[in-house]
Write a sequence for this structure.
């Protein structure tokens, strides 16, 4: 374990509060349900890190500060920055029609009802814009309230989402398949999860003529020193990647979702997924979220403009769009284990618009289905990152994440 620095500091965390946080994290690891974790909190330039437990549920190497995790949906707040660079440089505009780069999305049809057959459609009222993709309102996405409908079945069968038995195809083929489907809702009408973030990666690649990862690395990852972040883990670092588990929902038995060696992150993927494809470390993510708290600055270098950061990290949904997102979060609490109840969404991340737990209004970030959580809080100038290798098939990692945030906020002294 990396011991927390003791003694007086101006970080605004109390020693008692930090001890409680460590005790609570240890309790989760000692329960046997969380093999290991890395937690990082920072405030006013001071950083505390805890690394506990082991890389496998049956022992093995200890978790370390530089352990590399599958970030899953916590990829979204980072990969969105590539699109913001293009907005800053006027290579994209918010209300440009995407069909000039993504012709597969021209002339859309829209389902009459969410459970309609795929040919029971009406024409889209208007074309899809860049803004629709950035706000996740272009009309297609993962809707856990509509499982079993023809459209959701087709999304799975065509390999349009990651981490499923059907592998995602390379980007042009992925776009071709996406273009065969109707939209679930009219463009701009309703917030829909995930697919828009993968679409943005394809858009960035087509606008720039580079692979999504190359552009993201040149403009965001390398300038921030995020040396351990990418869409796969090279052979020389693979020993730092723990086994990922998706425990059996009924028995809690540890089922391997992905091994490190020869697993799905050991080779470059054919599809670089902005929605959930990154691997990274606590320190790399800390650098990124600190840049956002610094309104786009990293040291003396500007990574994003201040307005770009403000667009990303504040509410971008209308009240109608928000109603749909709210209903999904609150009515799915038995599936999401309470995650997602932030109130709203910016670009690529959740934004708290009401205080639903210990975190204040204005906190931004997101969680990942692999047991990850990454947020920043402007009001307290606070960053918190919690990384595990236990997927959200059981409530264990979600409960740990909730307890982590409770203890982070109870440790604030001022």
């Amino acid at each position: 374990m990396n011991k927390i620095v003791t003694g007086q500091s101006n970080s605004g965390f109390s020693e008692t509060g930090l001890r409680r946080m460590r005790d609570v994290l240890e309790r989760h690891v000692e329960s046997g349900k969380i093999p290991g974790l890395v937690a990082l909190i920072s405030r006013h330039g001071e950083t505390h890190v805890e690394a506990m437990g082991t890389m496998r549920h049956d022992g093995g190497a200890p978790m370390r500060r530089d352990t590399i995790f599958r970030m899953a949906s916590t990829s979204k707040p980072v990969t969105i920055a590539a699109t913001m660079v293009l907005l800053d440089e006027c290579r994209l505009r918010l209300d440009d029609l995407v069909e000039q780069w993504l012709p597969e999305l021209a002339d859309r049809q829209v389902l009459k009802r969410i459970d309609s057959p795929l040919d029971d459609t009406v024409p889209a009222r208007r074309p899809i814009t860049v803004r629709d993709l950035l706000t996740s309102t272009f009309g297609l996405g993962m809707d856990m309230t509509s499982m079993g409908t023809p459209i959701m079945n087709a999304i799975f069968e065509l390999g349009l989402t990651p981490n499923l038995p059907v592998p995602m195809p390379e980007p042009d083929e992925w776009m071709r398949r996406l273009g065969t489907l109707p939209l679930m809702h009219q463009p701009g009408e309703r917030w829909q999860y995930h697919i828009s973030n993968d679409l943005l990666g394809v858009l960035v690649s087509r606008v720039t003529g580079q692979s999504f990862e190359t552009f993201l690395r040149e403009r965001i990852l390398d300038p921030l020193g995020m040396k351990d972040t990418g869409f796969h883990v090279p052979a020389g670092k693979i020993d730092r990647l723990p086994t990922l588990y998706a425990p059996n929902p009924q028995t809690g038995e540890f089922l391997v979702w992905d091994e490190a060696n020869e697993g799905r992150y050991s080779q470059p993927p054919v599809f670089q997924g902005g929605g959930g494809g990154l691997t990274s470390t606590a320190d790399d993510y800390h650098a990124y979220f600190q840049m956002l708290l610094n309104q786009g600055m990293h040291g003396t270098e500007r990574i994003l403009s201040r307005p770009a950061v403000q667009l990303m990290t504040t509410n971008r949904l209308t009240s109608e769009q928000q109603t749909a997102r709210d209903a999904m979060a609150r009515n799915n609490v038995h599936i999401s284990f309470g995650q997602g109840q932030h109130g709203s969404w910016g670009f690529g991340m959740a934004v708290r618009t009401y205080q639903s737990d210990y975190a204040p209004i204005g906190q931004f970030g997101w969680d990942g289905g692999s047991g990850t959580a990454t947020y920043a809080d402007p009001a307290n100038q606070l960053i918190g990152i919690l990384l595990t290798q236990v997927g959200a098939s059981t409530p264990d990692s979600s409960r740990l994440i909730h307890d982590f945030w409770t203890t982070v906020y109870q440790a604030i002294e001022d």
The two ends are 27 Å apart (CA to CA).
